[in-house]
Amino acid sequence: MLELHGQHLIGRATSAESDDTFQAANPATGESLPTVFHEATPGEIDRALTLAAEAFVAFRQTSPEDRARFLDACADEVEALGEQLIETTMAETGHPEPRCLGERGRATGQARMFAELAREGSWVDARIDLPQPDRQPLPKPDVRSLMFPVGPVVVFGASNFPLAISVFGADTVSAFAAGCPVVVKAHPAHPATCELVARAILAAAEKTGMPEGVFSLVHGRTNAVGMGLVQHPETTAAAFTGSLRGGRALYDAANARPVPIPFYAEMGSVNPIFVLPGALKERGNEIASGYIQSLTLGVGQFCTNPGLVFGLESEELNTFVSGAAEGARGASPATMLHAGIHHAFTEGVNAMQHRSGLTLVGQSSTPADEAKSEAACHVFETDAEGLRNNPELFEEVFGPVSTVVKCPATSDLEEFAGQLEGSLTASIHGTEEDLASHRGLIDILEKKVGRLIFNGYPTGIEVCHAMHHGGPYPATAHSYFTSIGTRCIYRFVRPLCFQGWPQSQLPAELRDDNPRGIQRLVDGEYTRDPIAR
Amino acid sequence: MLELHGQHLIGRATSAESDDTFQAANPATGESLPTVFHEATPGEIDRALTLAAEAFVAFRQTSPEDRARFLDACADEVEALGEQLIETTMAETGHPEPRCLGERGRATGQARMFAELAREGSWVDARIDLPQPDRQPLPKPDVRSLMFPVGPVVVFGASNFPLAISVFGADTVSAFAAGCPVVVKAHPAHPATCELVARAILAAAEKTGMPEGVFSLVHGRTNAVGMGLVQHPETTAAAFTGSLRGGRALYDAANARPVPIPFYAEMGSVNPIFVLPGALKERGNEIASGYIQSLTLGVGQFCTNPGLVFGLESEELNTFVSGAAEGARGASPATMLHAGIHHAFTEGVNAMQHRSGLTLVGQSSTPADEAKSEAACHVFETDAEGLRNNPELFEEVFGPVSTVVKCPATSDLEEFAGQLEGSLTASIHGTEEDLASHRGLIDILEKKVGRLIFNGYPTGIEVCHAMHHGGPYPATAHSYFTSIGTRCIYRFVRPLCFQGWPQSQLPAELRDDNPRGIQRLVDGEYTRDPIAR
Known about the structure:
The structure is a homodimer of 533-residue chains.
Chain A: E1 8-10, E2 13-15, E3 21-22, E4 37-38, H1 42-60, H2 64-80, H3 82-93, H4 97-120, E5 127-129, E6 143-149, E7 153-156, H5 170-178, E8 182-185, H6 191-207, E9 215-218, H7 223-231, E10 237-241, H8 244-256, E11 263-266, E12 273-275, H9 277-296, E13 308-312, H10 315-330, E14 334-335, H11 339-353, E15 359-363, E16 374-375, E17 378-383, H12 384-389, E18 401-407, H13 410-419, E19 423-429, H14 432-437, H15 439-448, E20 449-454, E21 493-499, E22 520-522, E23 525-527
Helix pairs in contact in A: 2-4, 2-6, 3-4, 3-6, 4-5, 9-10, 13-15
C-alpha cells in the first residue's frame, strides 16, 4: 500500500507550495476523502514544464524499443497498484468494481498497444524521394521526412474515465510513444486515483531509465492551473476531454498565445440514433432495450451517450417508445461521478420536464437517492414540432437522459440531421434496404459526425487502428484528430524533413538500409525494402 | 484571347455588385492596368459559399478518376491560356518570362501530381479492423475508416507565386483531389492573372461535368472580404500564404467563430543558414555564391529566403563574407511584386542601416530604380553582440536582404538557434564531420524548423511526397500540416469511421474486395490484398 501524500509530482520531486488545498468527496456518501491536495502554483507549473522541455531532448532520442519498454513498464506498474487503485477509484468516482477493473484493462491494453505501435514503427510515415542529380533543368534533391515529436504535452484528465482517459489514458501513452514528455493536470474529482497512477508511471520511468521530467503531475481545481499549463511557453500541445465550456475556454487561450499551440479538445456530443422503418418492424423491442442499455452505461456519463433518437411516426415507433419507457423504468438509479455533474444533470432534467411539447414517457421506477448523487434514467418523447420549438434539445445533457423524436416524414429526419451540431457518432438502425433508401440522410450525417454506426450503439468504443473518436466541432476542436485509437498519436507529432542529409546522420527510419524494416513511401511506392544504390 | 471582365466568378455566373473598384498596377512602370475589379459584397461571398456547400454533396461523390480528369483538364486549360497568361502575369508581378513559364510548369505539374495521387488512392489512409463476434467479454465490432473531405475550402492566393501558390496552387488542387469545393480570394496585386486562371478552371469543370459551385473566385483588397470568407458558416477550412500580420488576423477570426475552423497559414520565416568550419575551409567561396543566388532568387520574395547566416569567427568566414559582398554587388536590382512590398523592403533596409553594430558589407552596385519598384540586394554583417543588441534581426524582412552573424563559439550558434522563431527551414553547410560534431546545434534546430537542408539552399522547393513546407509557428499556424507536397491534402480531410456498416453501402476504399486496389491497414498489417471471408 502506498501512502497518499497529496503533493504534486514534478519530475522526481514532490512539491506542495500552496496553502490553497482541497479534498475530493465520495459521491456515493457525500463525505470528504482524507487526502489533502494542493493547488499548483505558477512556480510549480513552471518547474514541471521546464523539466519536461529539458527531458524532451533525451526522451525523443530514446529508441522506439526504449519507449515501448517504458510503456509496458507503466502498464505493469499500474496493474501492480492492485486493489488499492480499484478501491481508490471506486471511492472517488462512484464507479462499481467491475467498471473499474474493466477500465484499468482498457488503459493498460491501450498502453501496450502503443508500445507495439512504437516497436513496429511504420506509424512515422517515413517518406523518401530519391535524388536525380542529372535532372533537367534542375537537379532533384534527396528529400526524406518522418513524423517527429512536438515537445512537452499537457494532458487534462477527464472525469468520466478516471483510468482510461485520465493520467494514463490514450493522451499520455500516445504522447510517450511519439517521444513527447507529458505534464498531466489531475482531475480534481479523482486526485488520489491520479496520484497513484502517476506514481506508477514515475516508477516505470525510473526502472526503464527515462529522463527526469518525462512525466509530471500537478493538481488544481481552479481555472488558473489549467490556464497556466496551456499558456506556458514550453507547452507545445495539449489534450483535453471534458465539457464544451471548459474546453472552449482553454482552446481560446491556446489560440491566443503569442505562439499558438494546438489544443485537442474532445467536448462530448449528442450522438443521435436513427431508427428506420425496416428495423422497427423487425426488432423494435430489441433496439429499445439496446438503446436503454447504451443510455445508462456508466450512468449515462459516456462521451458517446445517445441523447436523441429519431424515428418515423408509426405503430412500430409507438411500440419502440413503450419498450424504451419500460427499459427506463427498470433501470436502477446510480451514483454519478461527482456532486457537480449530478447537480447539472438534475437541473437539465428539470428544465426538460417544464418544456412544452416534451413528455416524460419513462423514468427509473426506483427513486434516485439525492444524497448519493444518484441519477435516474429519463426518457422523453416529442414530435417534430416539439423539437423545432425546443432547439435546446440539440444540446447534450450529461447523464442518462434522452429524447425520442417522432417525425412525420423522412424529410424531417433530414432536416433535423442537418440541424445537429458536430457529433462524435450517429447510429442508424435499419435493414440494408433502409440504408439504401435513406441515402439523403446518410449524406447529411457524413458531414456531421466522425463515426457512423449501423445496427449498433455508440457507447463501448473499440480501441483499434481504424477507430475515430472525433468529429466536427464541438465534438472535437479539430476534426482531423482522434483521441482514441492508434491514429491519436498524430496529435503530438509534425513532419520533419531532411534534404541532402548524409546517411550517417539521418534518423534510422530514413536511412537507405531501413534498419527498422518499417514501411516507407519511396518515390511514391509503399515498400519495406531497403534502398539499393 | 479572353477579354477580361474584372467580375467575380461565382459558380457559372459573373457578378459585380459593388461600386467599390480597384485596378492593379504594373510594378515595373507604376502604371495602372486597364481592367477594373470589384470588391466582393457580403451577398456575393454568401452566394459563392452557398453554391460550394451545395456542390459538396455531388463533388465528394465523384470518383477519384473523375476528380483526376478534372485536375488534368484544369492543367490543360491553364496551359491553353498560352501567352496571354504569361504576359498578364509578367505585367502584374514584374516577374520575367522564364520565371512565369517555370512557375506555370510547377503549377500544372503539381495539379497532375494530385490527379495521380487521387487515381492511386492509397492516400485516404483506409483502415479496417475486422470483427470478432465471439470475442470475450465483448464482441469486437467491424470498424473501418478513411479520410473524408471536410467541405468548402477558402483559399487565399499568395502574392509571390501568382501561378504556383495562388488560384491554381497546391491549396486548390489538393482540395479538389480530396473532394472539397474551393472559393478563392484573388490576390489584389494580380487579379487579372487570377481571372484568367479561374476561367480556365471553370472551363475544365464544365468539360468534365463537375457541379456548379465546385469553384468560385471573388476579388477584394479590403480585410472585409477575407474576414467574410473566413467567417462564413459554410466555410470548413481555409488556406493562406502571406504575411504574419495578415495571416494572424484571419487565424484569430477563424478560431473565434462560434464553430471554429482550421486556418492553415504559411506566414514566412527567416530560414537561417549555418556555415560550419569544415565547409568554410573546403568551399567557402562556392557557398557564398550559392547563398547570394538563393537570396536574390525571385528578388528575395520566396517564403524560404535566407535572412540570417551564422558562422564561427575565422579568416575563412571573413573570406566568405567578402565573397557574399562581392556577389551582392554583382546582383542586379529587380522589380518587386508590387509597390507595397517594395516600400516595406525599403523601410526594412533603411532601419537596418541605422542599427548600431550592423555593417552593410555589400549591395548591388547598379542602383535600384525606385520608379520601377526595384530592390537592390543588401548583405549586412554583425557579431554575436550585435545580434543580441538587435533582436529585430530575428524577424523576416521580405526581399533580398540578409545578415551574416560572426560568432565566437559554437555555444553562440546554439544560443542563437535557440532564439530563432519557428522557421520553414534551416540549412547547414558542413562536412559530415562538422555535422557529427555539432549534434547540439542540430538538436536545437530540429525543434525550430520543418526542413533541415545539408549543403544546399532553402529556396527552390521540390514538389514531392516527402517534402514538408511547414514549421513551428509563425512559419505555419499548425506545424502538422504542409502547404507543398502531397501531404498537403491532409489539410482538407478528416477521418470518417464506419462501424458495422454493410458492404453494399461502404465507400469502395473500405470494401472487403478492395476494388480500387489501394494499400490499407487491415488488422494492423499494410496490404493491398482483398479480404477473403
